[in-house]
Amino acid sequence: MPLITEPNLYSPDDFYADLIAAHEGLSDEESEALNSRLILILSNHIGERETLKQALEAAKKS
Amino acid sequence: MFQDRYSLAFKLYPYKKSKDQDKPDAVRHPVVIVGGGPIGLATALDLGRQGIPALVLDDHEGIGMGSRAICFAKRTLEIADRYGCGAPMLDKGVVWNVGKVFQDDRQVYEFNLLPESGHRNPAFINLQQPYFEKFIFDAICTEQERGAPIEIRGKNRVDAIDVKDDHVVLSVDTPDGAYQLEADWMIACDGAGSPTRDMLGLGFEGRVFQDSFLIADIKMKSTEFPTERWFWFEPYFKSGASTLLHKQPDDVWRVDFQIGWDVDRKEELKEENIRRRLDAMLGDDVDYEMVWSSIYTFQCRRMDKFRHGRVLFAGDAAHQVSPFGARGANSGFQDVDNLGWKLGLVISGKAPESLLDTYDDERIYGADENILNSTRSTDFITPKSKVSKNFRDAVLNLAERYTFARPLVNSGRLSVPCTYDHSPLNGADDLPGGPVTSRVGSPCKDAPVGHGFLLDQLGNDFAILAINTDVPNSVDIDGINVRSVSLNTTDDLTGALAERYLGSESQAVYLIRPDQHVTARWREYDEDALRSAVRKACGKE
């Protein structure tokens, strides 16, 4: 499945608030660890290597 | 002048003056093997069993001390079975299936190798390297008694090599002084520090890993530790950045501490310092005896080419990997398996010299696969950057609760044999419903047939494996006798043969190389197709 780069989040403001809230009260190190775990969890959910490669490329280009 | 570089576990071939040393002219030998480690000895055994004279030169008089390579894979045992030395290895070795991974003071998860049934050999055995070598040596002695032309010369050190177009001139030093030898073919099996490589001025490039590992072999007074592989990342006992505990025969345990790059080797190797690490790990109340210790560092690298005219490199001399995954000795054994029959056919005039270039193709492919896997393991075990360590720790953290993260934990991807998918020797793959695991290029999987096992029946030469179809008993192709192994469903009591070789087909014909790799397969027998495939597998097409 090609990487979705058009809007796909059901409720973007809510998601964004959840993301920031998850990091609340964490030290920089703890936040980095959380982000690492989050990336791994989401990557597994996506599963397809090709989609993940496109995501890595998209992130690098930004 | 002959200062031993190490002490011996077994003194097996004491120096004896050879007649060659008194001859005015250098005596020519068909094959000279430099180095009497496991790879050199196995190469001599392979060639000797084919009736090809093999002379091994070693600068010591036997097998060096120390457990070193301890983990031998199924494929290695299968090759050893072919050479007649697999049974004593299996008999002496420790079979293990369960592994546990820890971080700090918690178990992250446990795995079971769950070996597929219907194979003569287990997935792995643990066995001290000196025993492994001794069993190969014993098989050489047995073959010598049967007339195999194998000779091993102890305290024969090669000091200079002159490579000619069609032979090699070797200057050999001995306790009685120097002499010269000639070899039609020379095989360098002289280890990661290969003096042959240096004498020929050949490079050995790759990645250096800035870390050292302290090995301690200890004999436990009580045997409360189970036969499992335990691997700690950042253990609570602080004896190393990672630690591995693994059982060997004779109640000996291998403990491997990752101790960093900048260490004082002499200081670290003092018994009291090693004991301090061990006691922190095992607790003060565990009684043990120190058997052997060593510090090693490693690199992941290989030579550009393994064949240099009449000189061929095998084992660690040709490629070096990290120890994670047991890919050193196991891949060296696949080199031997690959080289033996090719050199045999070339020397007996049944195949062109160019067949040896495919040793390069196939084993460089194998070496790259091993280097890739072992580099990835090393990067996981010893992360090279902060972000790499973050992800590593995240994987370990998640693996405890979520199974998805467990396949990402990499404390060594254990050695599996190579499938030569793109080998120039590969013939037709005309068995559409055939299993992917027995596709052209793959090593044959074992299976129970009748009262024995398939791999024993395939033997040491080209073979036709025919299942549920008639084929001639044997076919002569350019002086090569191709023998048939004909089986049918009644031989397949467990169904493993059908599962591994038929897939959804009702019949099949396989052409198997002497190293028991599939080189072509069809639904039906066709003599022209067979001839063409054998010629291709011998490098003639």
From TrEMBL, chain A:
InterPro entries recorded: DUF2783 (IPR021233)
Protein name in the entry: DUF2783 domain-containing protein
UniProtKB/TrEMBL annotation, chain B:
Keyword annotations from UniProtKB, A to Z: FAD, Flavoprotein
SUPFAM superfamilies according to UniProt: FAD/NAD(P)-binding domain
GO molecular function, one term: FAD binding
Segments forming domain FAD-binding: 30-364
Cofactor dependency: FAD
Superkingdom as given in the UniProt entry: Bacteria
The protein, known as: FAD-dependent oxidoreductase
Organism of provenance: Ruegeria profundi
